C-alpha cells in the first residue's frame, strides 16, 4: 500500500508540474480565469457519467456534508489557483516556487496544532533538504538571485495560497466516507461554480482571452490530468499514508516542472537541476525512513 501511495504522489506531482508548463503555453491562447473555469467545466462533464450512480446511492451522506465538500472544491480547487494566478501578476515566478515549498511546513504545523501530531526529526530534516532542492532550482543556482528577492503584494497572495492548500490537505481528514467518484464529481462541480465569478470579473474588466485551438487543447489537458487524475491520486494517497508524509511529495512539483521545461520548452538543463532533484528525493527518502522507524513504538 505504501509503494502504491508513493506512485500516486509522484504521478500527482508530475501532473501538477505539467500544469505549470500548460500555464506557460497558454499565454496568448487563453486567459487564466477562463482556463480555470473551463478546465473544471470539462472535468465535471467527464466525471458526471461515472459519478452519477455513486452520488445517487450516497446522496444522503453527500447532502449532510455538502457545505464541507463545497468548501473543499472552492478553497482547494478554485481559490488556490486564483491566488496563484493573481500572485504572478505582482511577483516573480522564483518567489512563487520558493513559497510553494512551504506547504509541507504548513501541514506539519496544522497537524500539530489541531491534532497534536508531531513531525519526527527525520521528517523535519527531510523537509529542509527538499526545500533546499527547490530553492536551488528556483534561484538558478545563484545566491545573488536568491538574496535579491523581496516581498510584495504578490508574495503575500502566494503565502495565502500556500496556507490555503496546506489547510485543504489537512482538512481531507474530515472528508465523508464516500466513493472517490462522488468526491471528485461534487468537488469539480463546486470548483466550477466558485470559479465563475472570477471569470466574470475577467470578462468585465476586458482581460479575457477566449480560447483558440491551442487554448482548448490546454483546457482538455488541465481537465484530465491536473484537475481529475492528480486530485484522485492525491486524495487516495492522503488516505494511505497521511497528510504529513504525502505533503512532502509536493516539493517534487517544481523539480518536475523544471525538467519538463527542458524537454518541452527547450530550456537549458544545468548541474544544479540534477543536484536539486537529488536533494528532493533524498529528503523524501529520509522523512519516510524516519516514519517507518517510528511506527513500532506507536
TrEMBL record:
Keyword Cell inner membrane attached: no
Domain EamA: 4-137, 154-286
GO cellular component, one term: plasma membrane
Membrane-traversing stretches: 38-56, 68-88, 94-115, 127-147, 153-172, 184-203, 215-234, 246-265, 271-287
Main location (coarse class): membrane
Keyword Membrane: yes
Cellular compartment(s): Cell membrane
Top-level taxon of origin: Bacteria
Key words of the record: Cell membrane, Membrane, Transmembrane, Transmembrane helix
Membrane topology label: Multi-pass membrane protein
Protein's UniProt name: Drug/metabolite transporter (DMT)-like permease
Source species of the chain: Hoeflea marina
Amino acid at each position: 500500500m505504501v509503494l502504491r501511495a508513493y506512485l500516486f504522489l509522484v504521478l500527482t506531482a508530475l501532473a501538477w508540474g505539467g500544469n505549470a508548463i500548460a500555464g506557460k503555453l497558454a499565454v496568448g491562447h487563453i486567459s487564466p480565469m477562463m482556463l480555470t473555469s473551463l478546465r473544471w467545466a470539462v472535468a465535471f462533464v467527464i466525471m458526471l457519467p461515472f459519478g452519477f450512480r455513486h452520488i445517487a446511492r450516497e446522496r444522503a451522506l453527500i447532502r449532510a456534508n455538502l457545505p464541507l465538500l463545497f468548501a473543499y472544491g472552492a478553497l482547494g480547487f478554485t481559490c488556490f489557483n486564483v491566488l496563484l494566478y493573481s500572485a504572478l501578476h505582482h511577483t516573480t515566478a522564483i518567489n512563487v516556487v520558493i513559497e510553494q515549498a512551504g506547504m509541507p511546513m504548513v501541514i506539519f504545523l496544522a497537524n500539530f496544532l489541531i491534532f497534536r501530531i508531531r513531525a519526527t526529526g527525520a521528517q523535519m530534516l527531510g523537509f529542509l533538504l527538499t526545500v533546499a532542492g527547490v530553492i536551488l532550482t528556483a534561484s538558478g543556482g545563484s545566491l545573488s538571485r536568491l538574496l535579491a528577492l523581496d516581498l510584495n503584494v504578490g508574495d503575500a497572495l502566494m503565502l495565502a495560497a500556500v496556507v490555503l492548500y496546506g489547510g485543504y490537505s489537512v482538512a481531507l481528514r474530515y472528508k465523508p466516507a464516500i466513493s472517490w467518484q462522488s468526491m471528485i464529481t461534487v468537488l469539480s462541480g463546486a470548483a466550477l461554480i466558485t470559479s465563475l465569478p472570477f471569470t466574470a470579473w475577467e470578462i468585465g474588466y476586458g482581460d479575457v482571452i477566449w480560447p483558440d485551438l491551442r487554448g482548448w487543447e490546454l483546457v482538455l489537458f488541465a481537465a484530465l490530468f491536473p484537475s481529475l487524475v492528480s486530485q484522485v491520486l492525491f486524495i487516495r494517497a492522503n488516505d494511505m499514508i497521511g497528510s504529513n508524509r504525502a505533503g512532502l511529495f509536493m516539493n517534487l512539483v517544481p523539480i518536475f516542472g523544471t525538467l519538463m521545461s527542458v524537454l518541452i520548452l527547450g530550456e537549458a538543463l544545468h548541474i544544479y537541476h540534477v543536484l536539486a532533484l537529488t536533494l528532493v528525493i533524498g529528503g523524501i527518502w529520509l522523512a519516510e525512513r524516519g516514519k517507518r522507524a517510528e511506527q513500532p513504538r506507536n
